[in-house]
């Protein structure tokens, strides 16, 4: 039977669409599901501040009365205006291993792009650079992070057969914890503090951290402004990120650096991995899975490095070294074994170089694909 494409037009359709990958990856022990409630909020125009500059549509694929794939598309007008391009982003692209299914879905998104006058499809990308994005192309034997996406290896073959090519890659790094903070890193951090008057802020509770979170997000807006596809976070997007950080954050892992005037100049957010607890909930955060997440947060062996940012005017002055020194010392003090980063653009040398003083290796790579829309 031929593949049927249906547009997602109501809440029930959305819930079914967001549950599809949970069913697709039911037997995959490395997949960490996205919470369905979070997905519903992301595509809720009343809750996601990105709709101030973006639009979206969602579709599902069906065969013999069964859902066999899904795709979303995002028109990010702010990013297009910033970079002078006519791109439509594809997102939430999941499918069974059947080229007829993936092609029908992708062609549907391309049709909307043509209606909009776009000439390029790029993705998987979200509304902002802090959304889950990128398709895994290497590291399929590694468990996913909560902030990243897992996919089967066959996805890559489908992309190539559909005519997509690499636009850019992100890498993810596994850092093996040393017995103590590397001497060179500690010396650079000490010199930075002495020369520029920087200091690390200590916290005893997340209540003390909260006022700094919004400042940190504004640093993200300025520090990442020049990166691919990045547009400033809106206040409502910052509200959502603040909520997430307050849920999973711990005071000892909230890394804030101030200057002599008490201004926040750089930050890092790390936390124990919650991947196993999230997996237990199968897309829902109920009482049992919430308890498992709390158990994860008490297990300091495996740490996730969510993000790091430094004000543009304070970059290359050792702020990153202070953040890393504080983070590594906290991880070591709590018995940490290793730490893994979120996606880092492969050409972002400032971020890639911060791990040079550690035993580390790239353990995952994910890709943003591009497709030039042919003229009819």
Number of helices: 12
Helix content: 25-40%
The topology string of helices and strands comes to: EHHEEHEHEEHEHEHHEEHHEHEEHE
Rg for CA atoms? 21 Å
Distance between the termini: 28 Å
* Global outline: globular
Number of strands: 14
Beta-sheet strand percentage? Answer: 25-35%
User: Helix- and strand-based class?
Assistant: alpha+beta
Mean pLDDT: 90
Biggest pleated sheet: 14 strands, mixed
Low-confidence runs (pLDDT<50, min 5 residues)?
none
Would you mind describing this structure in some detail?
The chain has about 375 residues and is an alpha+beta fold. It has 12 helices and 14 strands. Strands 1, 2, 3, 4, 5, 6, 7, 8, 9, 10, 11, 12, 13 and 14 form a 14-stranded mixed sheet that branches. α4 (about 100-115) links the parallel β4 and β5.
Brief rundown of the structure:
This protein has 376 residues and is of the alpha+beta class. The protein has helices at 11-24, 36-42, 77-83, 99-116, 154-161, 183-196, 206-223, 235-248, 275-281, 287-297, 319-333, 349-352; strands at residues 4-7, 54-63, 66-76, 87-95, 120-123, 135-138, 165-176, 199-201, 254-258, 264-272, 302-310, 338-341, 344-345, 360-372.
